[in-house]
Amino acid sequence: MRHVSAGEIDVDGINYVLEPQEVRASLTDDPNAMWGFAVHVLRDGGLVGVKTCFVGRLGIELSEPEALALPIDELAPVLHRKAFEKIEERLREGEAGDEILFA
Questions:
Q1: Coil, helix or strand for 8?
Q2: Within a domain: residue 2?
Q3: Beta-carbon-side half-sphere exposure of residue 4 (alpha carbons within 13 Å)
Q4: Are 5 and 15 in contact (CB under 8 A)?
Q5: Residue 99 has pLDDT above 80, yes or no
Q6: 8 Å CB contact between 103 and 59
Q7: Residue 93 sits in which domain range?
Q8: pLDDT band at 33 (very low <50, low <70, confident <90, very high)
Q9: How far apart are CA 50 and CA 9, in angstroms?
């Protein structure tokens, strides 16, 4: 697995930096069904938006099922990648501002 802490995305010649924040999970004895965290979207060093991202267990099971057994510090980069994919899609659609996304 490739670990990601921050990411850069170039969209139509504009460079965005994505800075994921702390991952939060529900407190439960059952396996987590969803994780949530904010991703700061920066352009030219300034904050242009905050994407509040929710990544579901099913998406991880389908793409990287082995990741679900990892401790959160190793699972977080997998969750970040899923969110970055969704954020890149939104940036390509012209939406850099604040919004809630489900990845």
A1: strand
A2: no
A3: 21
A4: no
A5: yes
A6: yes
A7: 7-102
A8: confident
A9: 15
Query: Are 33 and 57 within 8 A, CB to CB?
Result: yes
Separation between Cα atoms, residue 3 and residue 61, nearest integer Å: 17
- As a whole number of angstroms, the distance between CA 14 and CA 73 comes to 30
Average pLDDT over residues 26-55: 90
Region for 53 from its dihedrals, namely left if φ exceeds 0, alpha if ψ lies in -120 to 50, beta otherwise: beta
* Segment 42-51, tens digit of pLDDT: 999 999 999 9
Close Cβ partners of 80 (under 8 Å, ≥ 6 residues apart): 4, 5, 7, 20, 37, 39
48 in a domain, yes or no?
yes
Counting the structural domains of the chain, the total is: 1
Question: How confident is the prediction for the chain on average, in pLDDT?
Answer: 89
Residue 76 neighbours by CB distance under 10 Å: 20
Only one residue has tokens 């930096």, namely 17
